[in-house]
Specification:
- Six copies of one chain form a homohexamer.
- The first copy, chain A, is an alpha+beta fold.
- The first copy, chain A, has a single domain, classed as Roll (Thiol Ester Dehydrase, Chain A), CATH 3.10.129.10.
- The longest helix of chain A has 12 residues.
- The radius of gyration of chain A is 17 Å and the shape is elongated.
- Chains A and B meet through helix 2, helix 5 and strand 3 of A and helix 2, helix 5 and strand 3 of B.
Chain lengths: ~150, ~150, ~150, ~150, ~150, ~150
Amino acid sequence: MSDNSSRSARYFEELEVGESAAFENARTITGADIANFAGVSGDFHPIHMSSEFAREETQFDGRIAHGQLISDVTESIAADENRHAFSYGHDETRFVKPVYPGDTLSPRRELVEKEVYDEDYGRVVYEYETTNQDGEVVFVDRHTMLVKRRP
Amino acid sequence: MSDNSSRSARYFEELEVGESAAFENARTITGADIANFAGVSGDFHPIHMSSEFAREETQFDGRIAHGQLISDVTESIAADENRHAFSYGHDETRFVKPVYPGDTLSPRRELVEKEVYDEDYGRVVYEYETTNQDGEVVFVDRHTMLVKRRP
Amino acid sequence: MSDNSSRSARYFEELEVGESAAFENARTITGADIANFAGVSGDFHPIHMSSEFAREETQFDGRIAHGQLISDVTESIAADENRHAFSYGHDETRFVKPVYPGDTLSPRRELVEKEVYDEDYGRVVYEYETTNQDGEVVFVDRHTMLVKRRP
Amino acid sequence: MSDNSSRSARYFEELEVGESAAFENARTITGADIANFAGVSGDFHPIHMSSEFAREETQFDGRIAHGQLISDVTESIAADENRHAFSYGHDETRFVKPVYPGDTLSPRRELVEKEVYDEDYGRVVYEYETTNQDGEVVFVDRHTMLVKRRP
Amino acid sequence: MSDNSSRSARYFEELEVGESAAFENARTITGADIANFAGVSGDFHPIHMSSEFAREETQFDGRIAHGQLISDVTESIAADENRHAFSYGHDETRFVKPVYPGDTLSPRRELVEKEVYDEDYGRVVYEYETTNQDGEVVFVDRHTMLVKRRP
Amino acid sequence: MSDNSSRSARYFEELEVGESAAFENARTITGADIANFAGVSGDFHPIHMSSEFAREETQFDGRIAHGQLISDVTESIAADENRHAFSYGHDETRFVKPVYPGDTLSPRRELVEKEVYDEDYGRVVYEYETTNQDGEVVFVDRHTMLVKRRP
């Protein structure tokens, strides 16, 4: 017997508006994450890659994480790794405050919309909100996913 | 004398609605990119990481790239690496078609909105559209950036 | 309300001998995984890194994944990411059959031993067994973890 | 003439019980190593990835390296990269003490067992012991390898 | 209309001896960069990978970046990503001073030689000079590239 | 007793002009290596990263490895990881033929020059020559190192 099926393979019918999850102190963003994100994306903007540039030529206190890195990490943690779902799009993605190396992220999600999409899939919208170790919101997003309907 | 300053450090006043750029055959997405994106984000969903799962349990022809990987790569290529700009947010991000390992991306951008944000910054919106090697649109996005006003 | 706490934070008292989980077609091992494992560990043995060497000088059909990569991936998938547990050791780790780039792994776990360790922790042993896409066992291991007792 | 053949291609008959090697101050484990190990294995447990979690919810002084990372690095350094050998399994692997980012590892090996396995291979067992910069043992393991017999 | 063609696709005829570019505070070299370079190249020499070794057994103040990493980063920044050019070779590459984790690099280039190579290509030589945040030269190189002649 | 000291810690006095080593079929260059090199260096030139670009707009048969990747891998394999040596510079580095994903490299080195540098160090020059699986030379280089004199 497996506890896998019940956990990460939920059909559209099993999801409910209002259900939520919070992931406290889930991940500290480090300089290594910024280097690796630059390496995958190709984005070596000095606001992320140069301490001198960030301190001297921006309004920030030093180099900051790429906004999309925060988005990627939030989605990875907050989206249930539901085997019946895949990503459709994002809306109202906002990088509310800078994330510095050493900051620890606590993402939350809430299912806020749900409707039938076609014969095979339903569409659900999750709201994500990520706070740092001081309780400040650093990131918000609305993530739309398509989820298999029960056969 | 340097040709650097003129190229990648443009003030808000130098940007114009309607300006655009196209980057033909800029990057082929490979299995290595998918592995590295999973490693940075932590998203090991089998739709991206398991050939067997993707073929047998999804409507796709095999494992597909993470949508956010396409978003990250598009932004890295299409966003001018303007030293006077930083990312504010995204809207209407859509993963229009799946991207498979071996597909080659051609991103375009167009500056579609521009307005003063505050004393120091202007706000601009770029529309991104990424096509694959068959000319099919696989990704669209609206990217908002803040850009320094000329001192 | 959160479904997080109930899922990945289980005390010693909540775990039972005989409980099991199976993760079908969880991950395809690729050349990128082998490259990245070599990069982390420093193990560039040509049996993993050279197609020519592997074909000509070993009994295998080409280069094979590092055994420890299979061990690491199995543990990552099969070990519940229980916030109350940490790793103590491994026994009887065996690389039963070679894993080639392109093979897809299906790990299973079963909790086979459980006993009080000290005032604060219990000790549990999981048996792992990983099969490839042909149903052949490629890896077995006994993983001992310490798990917090309920306060 | 090459000094390669004599160094890293030794047949079973050339190995002797009791031979040993020590690798002083061979490698410092850093936050980048932990990030990269998480990225390869998929293990993002907050004991490794979240400073806040590790300090507040565990008995450790901050986030610790994955045990398997120490195992992988030890094997990479301590196992002679013998072109005639490949890995068979591990026993009695123990993570004796936590390894923190910044700790420097000194692995040792000793060949403790040797016997004919079949017509083509011999079986040898290495004992590994890894100490940190304070001389404390942090890791022990018994690594079994198969080594080609002289043709 | 695209501003791409004019920027990163210049024919041999468009390049001039004496043209130069400077990239101030372009990139901070970090421990993550050193780890990733070791992972790609396979070079885990303890002068780069072990703090204890570097402090105790070398004349340096701690571990230093691989010279080739500085070379790779300099070339990546200083070489115009000209779609009509590819790399032919390097000369007089010198690692003038050590680069430590945390140092920020400012590369410059100057085109110092230009001549027809054959019917299809011209040959150009760039001189690179990279300084650290204290204005000290840490790296020099002469990079020869072949560039397409205008059809 | 250790066989480490005798192997990878040789003083200047122990090195001889004419000594050489060959590393047959040491490493296959893969798409993952190219992705990871791009990620470290920041060099995403489409000749390396885009199959479509490389086939359609260059004289090559598809995307090719970065020259510096071949240089880095050659040095990592061919340079004895001598704990008493560090890198001084390179000369006459030439990318003689393109290296494609799937090509297997066999580097050789020969010590061709040796002279006292100062009171503490000697200077030695290695010639590197790397061939592919068809026996064609793809890379040559002269690598100068400083090596500690015997105390």
